[in-house]
Automatic annotation (TrEMBL):
Residues 14-153, 185-286, 295-407 form the Alpha-D-phosphohexomutase alpha/beta/alpha domain. GO terms for molecular function: magnesium ion binding; phosphoglucomutase activity. This is phosphoglucomutase (alpha-D-glucose-1,6-bisphosphate-dependent). Keywords: Isomerase, Magnesium, Metal-binding, Phosphoprotein. Belongs to the phosphohexose mutase family. One of its GO terms (biological process) is carbohydrate metabolic process. GO terms for cellular component: cytosol. PANTHER family: PHOSPHOGLUCOMUTASE, PHOSPHOHEXOMUTASE FAMILY MEMBER. It is an enzyme of class 5 (isomerase). It comes from Roseobacter litoralis (strain ATCC 49566 / DSM 6996 / JCM 21268 / NBRC 15278 / OCh 149). It catalyses: alpha-D-glucose 1-phosphate = alpha-D-glucose 6-phosphate. Its cofactor is Mg(2+). Residues 1-22 are annotated as: Disordered. Pfam families: PGM1_C_vert_fung, PGM_PMM_I, PGM_PMM_II, PGM_PMM_III.
Amino acid sequence: MTLSSIQKGPFEGQKPGTSGLRKKTRVFMEPGYLECFVQSTFNAIGGVAGKSLVIGGDGRFYNDKAIQIILKMAAANGAALAIVGQGGLLSTPAVSHLIRKRKTDGGLILSASHNPGGIDEDFGIKYNVANGGPAPESVTASMFDETLKITEYRISDAPDIALDQIGQYQIGEMRIEIIDPVSDYAALMEDLFDFDKIKGLFSGGFTMRFDAMHAVTGPYAKAILEDQLGAAAGSVINAVPSEDFGGGHPDPNPVWAKVLMDEMMSPAAPDFGAASDGDGDRNMIVGRGTYVTPSDSLAVLAANAHLAPAYAAGLAGVARSMPTSAASDRVAEKLGINSFETPTGWKFFGNLLDAGKVTLCGEESAGTGSDHVREKDGLWAVLLWLNILAVRQQSVADILKDHWAEYGRNYYSRHDYEAVPTEAANALMAQLEAKFDALPGTVWSGLTVTTADSFSYHDPVDGSVSHNQGLRISFGGGARAVLRLSGTGTEGATLRVYLEQYAGPEADHSLTAEAALASVRAAVIEMTAMHSHIGRTEPNVRT
Ligand code: VG1
Ligand code: CO
């Protein structure tokens, strides 16, 4: 085996976004492209000599090839140990757990999450640090700096490793462990939740459908829900990870998980439905006939977490991303615990979790998690719901109704305008922000603006400041709109418009979100002159 330094780079545009670097798969397959990003990551963290890494991905096209390359590069850079999921598979939360459990220096996750997979679709890579969480902004900034100046990468010419075979391997001095991707994670879940109670729920006839969307959670969900907890065989569907997610879009929301939604809204619906995304960190929760918005799910989990063993002593606090509805704030207030509002992206929760300031975190994009790992965790959220359902013995719909009666309802929806020309999206945002000083007191579609600002986050733990994290506009009467541009897309810009309307405990909670949000939606369209900027006012996706 020989080690070589290959002259290559720099490549343009290797700037990590909300969650790592995402590009078209063919871009990642260009000679040296992946290699230069990986070497830049190693350079940014002071090299990997003597270090240990967890490596795995969501099984999408190019997952295994990328892992072979990374293993040879890690070995050539002097790493001591690589822990890899069998078949190259590891969910994002499982990587986070393994980094913490095995005390490795970090990990690399191959995934573009909910983006479709395949040679003509998307690929991605993300570096997580020693606490198990996504690299914070200080680290992603140094990674980007390194990508601008890289001229060579190091790689060994060792043969490929048999990723499908559990066992111990070696490339030069570096040890490689191929491990079962599921067992450590399943053991963690068993520690957190009352498995006996959940088993009792299923043996009492409770039915569920979990749609793994042909992505990485399939093996985890089958092992835990069906084999360990006794959900009926066939409860988990689309359970075999495929390179292109069965040609689908592994994004667990009512649009992309339509088959599950249709079943849950039909007369033959099971009691409970759930779905997860490409890399297993997102979750969708649906009761029979009832979709639970991710913001409501976070609030319900916060209010009921004490019913599960791991959270029986209560929560230290709850954090939510800024565009997520304020529903969880109301729960935190009532419980007398901390609540925080952070920028979009899980990397901003790490410090709060490490400092013990919060126990639960969540995002409106179907991400929920706790201090058990440092990532959002799809299956964890499903199991916490099951634990709560097993204790409360009520339907999802009744739990939601009770919740709204106590705290009021935050009607909520996110509208995505995809593949907008980047310049048009930037102009819409810039012109809106330029108006902000004059906005308070003005009326749009019958709503009066109370405040308008660009969100800056001051991290209370390390004092760092992140500017330009989204534009937020509050209106009298409890309405709020947030606008930001996606940091995970690979084509043009995606404009995200987040709409919220609060209705107090005594108010009507039976409206559709669409009806309750019609005024705030109209106000945003008018205020941004949306049609003149992007040529349309209808979003591609509403969640
Ligand atoms: C989106 C979501 C954000 C989430 C991120 C990564 O980012 O809005 O809440 O943390 O995806 O999730 P953006 O910048 O496109 O809005 V995942 O499951 O795609 O890793
Ligand atoms: Co994801």
